[in-house]
């Protein structure tokens, strides 16, 4: 089977990732499956089809490179890297269509969050938890229902957005702008209503994102954190030394949507923790009492907040997850 056929087969099989190492592996419903496909042909197809001279030079110099690409109607996020046995690849398969918010099971409070005119809304979770999919769905909802200028900064571009009611400008790090910091500073001069940052990777990006929200923009981004309290602490730790960082976060953070994927009757389903920055939580952030945020979420149902445990219970009641998975996931949250 050649490289093109491997990608097409993986997409049809519902694989989220292809790994080319000593063998070719697929990740399906969170589990790795070893194949007997020819790894040389698969890797050769990827390099010949998607790696330009600039990317080859980056790979040679740094030992790794990220590439956004497309084949037929499928988007690919490709990471090529050197390791002990030579060049390997990890390829994330991105669905050609953007899923509707309701299809993802995101609570309806998300519609309210899109009405904010400024501030920061974060989507958090581990690698492979579906953050990019959630963020793309939110942007697509805004694009379909509001008249906004949306600028995205991504590394690489994953989902392709076409202008609907909004204007969407998608810029790729390394191609259209040098880095997140430069792209974000430039975006502030491009009359945006909304800025979407693919990932807040460093303190400079975080600081500039806070500044963007303070100057009247709504900023969406992702972080590799497990829940709301850890998200706040991650930003504080990353921006250590920035004067008034807790005050800035307290005043500019609008919500944190944390998510993870668990085994279900449909393969895997997302569960969500929703934190809205109500006055009580705002004070907790200012005072450094982030350990109390979890309890505030549990008692914040009237504000449409929810904990992971509540969402897991919802899936169990609906028969979407088994009792075994329900008990296992509940134990993890203790």
From TrEMBL:
Taxonomy, superkingdom: Bacteria
Gene3D superfamilies: 3.30.450.90, P-loop containing nucleotide triphosphate hydrolases
Domain Bacterial type II secretion system protein E: 188-202
One GO MF term: ATP binding
Database matches in InterPro entries: P-loop_NTPase (IPR027417), PilT/PilU (IPR006321), T2SS/T4SS_dom (IPR001482), T4SS_GSP_E_ATPase (IPR050921)
Family: Belongs to the GSP E family.
Designated name of the protein: PilT/PilU family type 4a pilus ATPase
Organism name: Peptacetobacter hominis
């Amino acid at each position: 089977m050649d490289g093109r056929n491997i990608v097409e087969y993986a997409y049809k099989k519902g694989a989220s990732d292809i790994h080319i190492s000593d063998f070719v592996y697929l990740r399906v419903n969170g589990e790795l499956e070893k194949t007997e496909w020819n790894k040389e042909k698969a890797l050769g197809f990827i390099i010949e089809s998607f790696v330009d001279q600039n990317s080859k030079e980056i790979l040679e110099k740094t030992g790794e490179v990220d590439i956004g690409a497309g084949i037929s109607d499928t988007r690919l996020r490709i990471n090529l890297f050197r390791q002990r046995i030579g060049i390997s690849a990890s390829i994330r398969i991105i669905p050609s269509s953007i899923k509707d918010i309701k299809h993802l099971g995101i609570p309806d409070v998300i519609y309210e969050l899109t009405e904010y005119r400024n501030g920061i809304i974060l989507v958090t979770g581990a690698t492979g938890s579906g953050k990019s999919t959630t963020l793309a769905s939110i942007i697509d909802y805004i694009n379909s229902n509001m008249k906004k200028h949306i600028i995205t900064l991504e590394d690489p571009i994953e989902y392709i957005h076409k202008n609907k009611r909004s204007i969407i400008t998608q810029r790729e790090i390394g191609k259209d702008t040098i880095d997140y910091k430069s792209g974000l500073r430039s975006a502030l001069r491009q009359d945006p209503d909304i800025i979407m940052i693919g990932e807040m990777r460093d303190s400079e990006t975080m600081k500039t994102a806070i500044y963007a929200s303070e100057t009247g923009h709504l900023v969406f981004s992702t972080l590799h954190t497990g829940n709301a309290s850890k998200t706040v602490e991650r930003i504080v730790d990353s921006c250590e030394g920035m004067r008034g960082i807790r005050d800035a976060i307290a005043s500019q953070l609008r919500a944190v949507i944390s998510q993870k994927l668990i085994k279900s009757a449909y393969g895997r389903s997302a569960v969500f923790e929703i934190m809205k920055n109500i006055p009580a939580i705002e004070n907790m952030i200012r005072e450094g009492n982030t350990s109390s945020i979890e309890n505030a979420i549990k008692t914040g149902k009237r504000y449409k907040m929810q904990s992971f445990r509540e969402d897991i219970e919802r899936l169990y009641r609906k028969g979407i997850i088994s009792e075994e998975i329900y008990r296992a996931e509940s134990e993890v949250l203790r």
